[in-house]
Amino acid sequence: MTTQQHPTAADFAPGPGSPRQGSHLWLLTLELPGRVMNTSRGTLTPPFGWTRYDVLLGLLEQIVAEQPELATAAVTAFVLEPNVL
User: Fold this and answer.
1) Region Disordered: start and end of each range (predicted)?
2) Among 34, 38, 72, 74, which residue's Cβ finds the most Cβ atoms within 10 Å?
3) What pLDDT sits at residue 31?
């Protein structure tokens, strides 16, 4: 049985020659009821084979690394869509 390693914040860093915007637009709202609500957004290009869940876990890790008080926050919204019109 193999264990899938979840993405880390480093996986979201743009590589050399990366486009200005990623292939996907994301929005994530976290809430600590009665205390704080935080909405973050951006673009990213996930590695081939990643799932929506992989992206969610990576984003949560990145946000919590920057704001540790959100470690136990509830996800109230998560949007991940292709970044094209």
Assistant:
1) 1-22
2) 38
3) 97
